[in-house]
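Students often ask why we bother encoding 3D structure as a string. The short answer is that it lets us treat folding as translation between two languages. Here is a chain of 507 residues written in the first language.
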Amino acid sequence: MHQENFPVNGIIGIVANSAAEVDEAIAARLSSVEIRADLLLSNQVDTNGVLAIVRQAKSSGLAVLLTLRHPTHGGAFDGTEAERVAFNLAALEAGADIVDAEVGTEAAAELLRAGAPLLVSQHNFDGMYTESEVSELTTRMSAPSANGHQPLGIKIVPTANTIGEAARMLQWVEARGNGEPARIGFAMGAAGAASRILTIGYGAPITYAAFGEAVAPGQVPMHELIDIYRADQLNAKTRVYGIAGEHSLTSFSPFLHSPAFAARGINAVYVPLQTDDFDDLLETADVLRIDGMSVTTPFKEQALAAADESDDRSQACGASNTLVYERHEDARKICAYNTDFDGVIMPIAERARVSGLNIAIIGNGGAARGAVQALKEAGAKITMFYRNADRGAPVAAEFGVDGALLDALDDSFDVYINATTLGTNEDDPSPLPKSLLKRPEQIAFEMLYQNPNSRLVQDAAERGVQIVRGSEMLVAQGTVQFDHFVGVLPSLEEFSENFERGKTYRF
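And here it is in the second language, the structure alphabet:
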């Protein structure tokens, strides 16, 4: 349950640069803003200008949280505590609904004694608190002043190194008792991104987002938080899905799945599960209320190993890219699927008959394994190419296909598939010589989608051969994943449109 009497709520836009951001908040249909007075002052807005912004926001119907943070606590105001108190009181006089001050500061103590509507905050930019530290902080921050005034809310925001650490803050939010101050909690850092999205669903009255450049590590862009994740609409019954991997924050999968949930009226959200420790994520899944996840490099083999049941495709290639949590009362089991098969086969099948094609697969990791098994089942002739024979040759032998060092790659193939990470960065070279692309019926398949103009794609376009971009693979396998998640198969057209809309947020 959200704290009903807390004066700001929902997604709160951070006004940190100019008064124009108040207009952005109105255009985004927000109900509240945080006016970061310290950042505005450092951006050449004087005191009267900041107070004018407070009045502008209030006259526009926005609830206002005023924050004047000292550098010690990650802010930019270098005045005295007495000056901080005076400024906060002036802001309240100008119409601010609540002010933020850090626990243990003179400003917080004085504002509380004065009966000011107060959010007591604590940030840790260096790491995570232990459970006992959080408990002690909660007691200190919630304590009333000597004259009986209590803060309206308490906010604890540490920095998470793992998604499990971030989940602790969601548990803390959820544990608020009746009559206690509102709790605002999530984690900074890449591992904390999901907690920023999900925190309102655990009972926090607000989550924060910047209109422009992030003002805290791991902050989710404003319009993604509103339009894609619908963070202010989440609740205790929201089903959580996500993309698990080392680079989940750059994934386009949330742009495919979350809008598809919304279009069908499904109370679900799909979030980035940024992690370099898959076991930690698995241990945290129940806390995060996860019902399913897409799994990407390098965790596909671990995903299969974690499952209670798995489909034939996963077993055949030794990897899974989709986990579904089936819950029945107090029991649950994890089911593993491999939709990379669909992602590989469907785009090629639109351009040629797969059976009988002579296909070169470059790479020997999880992506390559899925492609080999899918195309082998479809009747293609496969040769795997790799840089390291000690690693690559056993994989080729495992699947019963030809294998060779990358230097042996020639122009005899109908399809060239890049199943490596080469091409992620703009300056990466192509995994194969351009001279091998000779015939218009040849297909160059770039599995990566993060860089839509990889060198392989550029070379293929220049040589006039057919191109399969990674976005096609993402869309194709994503539709089947969605079906595994909720039992509904979206069209390729719907997910393609979702992908294109997603590009407007990232580029």
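Translate back mentally: The first strand starts at residue 10 and ends at 15. Keep this in mind for the problem set.
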